[in-house]
Amino acid sequence: MGYAHLSIDEREMILKMQTQQASLQAIGDRLGRPKGMNFRTVLKTEIDRVLKLLNNRPRKCLNYRTPTEVFWGKSKRCASD
Q1: Which H/E stretch holds residue 50?
Q2: Other CB atoms closer than 10 Å to residue 66's CB: what's the count?
Q3: Are 70 and 62 in contact (CB under 8 A)?
């Protein structure tokens, strides 16, 4: 698909959206989510379990801290904490 007719800002936005989509698909694959899954049938307990998994997984982009640690401003990496 050609993007020559779009402005540089529009091209950058499309690239960012494609990158985010690929990232979300990779997360779904790691969690074992079947493609085309109907989220209306998912229980709240299952959603909470997945949220806990995602929010407590260290991320390279967060300097190997978890999203929970960054959000609350805490680091649980040292025994002295």
Answers
A1: helix 44-55
A2: 19
A3: yes
What pTM does this model have?
0.51
Find, among 78, 74, 33, 77, the residue nearest to 53 by Cα: 33
d(CA 15, CA 32): 26
H or E stretch including 22?
helix 8-30
Residue listed under structure tokens 């109907």: 38
State how far the alpha carbon of 55 is from the alpha carbons of 18, 30, 39, 48, 79, in Å: 22, 14, 20, 10, 20
- Burial group, residue 54, by CB count within 10 angstroms (0-12, 13-18, 19+): middle
Structure tokens at 19: 């990158």
Contact, 59 vs 66, CB < 8 A?
yes
Q: What is the pLDDT of residues 34-57, one digit of tens each?
A: 677 777 787 888 888 888 988 898
